[in-house]
Amino acid sequence: MEIRALRDDDPEVISAAFDGTKPVAQYERYLAEQRAGVRDVLVATVDGSYAGYVTVRWESPYFGNIPEIQDFNVLPALRRRGIGSALMDAAEAKVAERSGVVGIGVGLYPDYGQAQRMYVRRGYLPDGRGLIYDGRQVPPMELVRNDDAATLMFTKRLR
């Protein structure tokens, strides 16, 4: 397994690996943000083939000056082989060079169950603000849809 920075030839490969459900333009934007120093993108390959990626956004829209790990994906067929843990290790190490704390958000429905458990095992703790929907704190008794915009936000002390 190799973990490296996102390269110019990756957007089409990654989009195709997700059957086009993640558009090429998303990864082209990530490349531009990586060049601008706004985001770092770490790509995992196994035997030279794409396996997964994670991004670090250096100024989080939610956490402010705490870097946030965002958009963490490992191909379903390659999960439970240590690729996700290796990507998280690399992302946390990169953040630790610049910050003592890292943030991450996780969805609330069962598709996110493995990620929820992984983050807790890795020492992430809820930030105490409760349910977040589309980047804003949901007040008590307000109804929201349980979709990808509904998250619980966590932080972890790195040093």
Brief digest:
The chain has about 160 residues and is an alpha+beta fold. It has helices at about 10-15, 25-35, 85-95, 115-120; strands at about 1-5, 40-45, 50-55, 70-75, 100-105, 125-135, 135, 150-155.
CATH third-tier fold name: Aminopeptidase
Mean of residue pLDDT values: 96
Q: What are the secondary-structure elements, in order, as H or E?
A: EHHEEEHEHEEE
Shape designation: globular
Radius of gyration: 16 Å
The number of distinct helices, counting runs of at least 4 residues, comes to 4
Main traits of this protein?
8 strands; single chain; 159 residues; alpha+beta; Aminopeptidase; globular
Any overview of this molecule?
- This protein is 28% helix and 34% strand.
- The chain has 159 residues and is an alpha+beta fold.
- The chain has a single domain (2-157), classed as Gcn5-related N-acetyltransferase (GNAT) (Aminopeptidase, 3-Layer(aba) Sandwich).
- It is globular, with a radius of gyration of 16 Å.
- The two termini are 27 Å apart.
Helix and strand topology:
Layout: E1 2-5, H1 10-17, H2 24-36, E2 39-46, E3 49-57, E4 68-74, H3 83-96, E5 101-107, H4 113-121, E6 125-133, E7 136-137, E8 150-157
Parallel strand pairs: 4-5
Antiparallel strand pairs: 1-2, 2-3, 3-4, 5-8, 6-7, 6-8
Helix pairs in contact: 1-2
